[in-house]
Amino acid sequence: MIVSPSLLSADFGNLAHDLEMINQSKAQMLHLDVMDGVFVPNISFGFPVIKYVQQLCTKPLDVHLMIVEPQKFVNQVRDCGAEIMNVHLEACNHLDRVVQQIHDAGMKAGVTINPATPVCLLRDIVQQLDLVLLMSVNPGFGGQKFIPNTLNKVHELKELLKEKGSKAVIEIDGGVNDVTGSQLAKAGADVLVAGNYVFKADDPLKAIDTLVNL
Ligand code: DX5
Ligand code: ZN
């Protein structure tokens, strides 16, 4: 399993320490949650923080934009050193164009859907995607409870990707722990995002290992 710990749950007073832990870990990416207080009812961090993280972190950056009008920020996300730029389907009027802009900027393109957004809305975009991110909580906060219907959506998405010949990987975000992670692995998820389960653990390296070995 590919694991992308979510920095949102890290200790922002000691980020360098937590990033060193990530560098030493078996996590294959680092997940960065950008929130604007409009698309979601919370504000997190922005580009100056991501730039700093990029200097200290040896893992590829998986940037999840929970913001309106993400198309305005493609170049800034690229300039922060992101490998993957995730935009919400619900935030894009011209999703196909945004995905092209992300690719033209040299990044991998991910599209994220909220728990109440059906997988079938991805039908005409999956062939262009490198990643689909299914939210397994309503976005905006770490530490929420996993929504079990996500497991059905993973099965449905897997079928859709097969039908369309898409190579996109399936990433899941919200309420992931050893139990829900194991259910997701069986359902066919490729990447697990985990915030609280990793950063609030007594032994974060062990928590990452547990998810990697699912
Ligand atoms: C939620 C964020 C998540 C969050 C996950 O809006 O997109 O990435 O950090 O946190 P946990 O794993 O604690 O649910
Ligand atoms: Zn996220």
Explain what you see.
This protein is α/β, with parallel strands linked by helices and 214 residues long. It has a single domain (2-212), classed as Aldolase class I (TIM Barrel, Alpha-Beta Barrel), CATH 3.20.20.70. Helix content is 35%, strand content 19%. It is built from 8 helices and 8 strands; from the N terminus they run βαβαβαβαββαβαβαα. The protein has helices spanning 15-24, 47-56, 74-79, 95-104, 150-164, 178-187, 196-199, 204-212; strands at residues 2-5, 30-35, 61-66, 84-88, 108-113, 131-135, 169-173, 191-194. Strands 1-8-7-6-5-4-3-2 form an 8-stranded parallel beta sheet. The longest helix is centred in the last third of the chain and has 15 residues, at 150-164. The chain is globular and about 40 Å long. It starts with a strand and ends with a helix. The chain binds D-xylitol-5-phosphate and zinc ion. Residues 6, 8-9, 31, 33, 64, 137, 139-144, 173-176, 193-197 line the site of D-xylitol-5-phosphate. D-xylitol-5-phosphate is lined by residues 6, 8-9, 31, 33, 64, 137, 139-144, 173-176, 193-197.
Features of the shown structure:
214 residues; binds zinc ion; TIM Barrel; binds D-xylitol-5-phosphate; single chain; alpha/beta; eight-stranded parallel β-sheet
Please report the first level of CATH classification, the CATH class. Alpha Beta
The string of secondary-structure elements, in order, is EHEHEHEHEEHEHEHH
User: What fraction, in percent, of the residue positions are helical?
Assistant: 25-40%
Strand order of the largest sheet: 1-8-7-6-5-4-3-2
Number of domains: 1
Compute the gyration radius: what is it?
A: 16 Å
Distinct bound molecules: D-xylitol-5-phosphate, zinc ion
CATH homology group: Aldolase class I
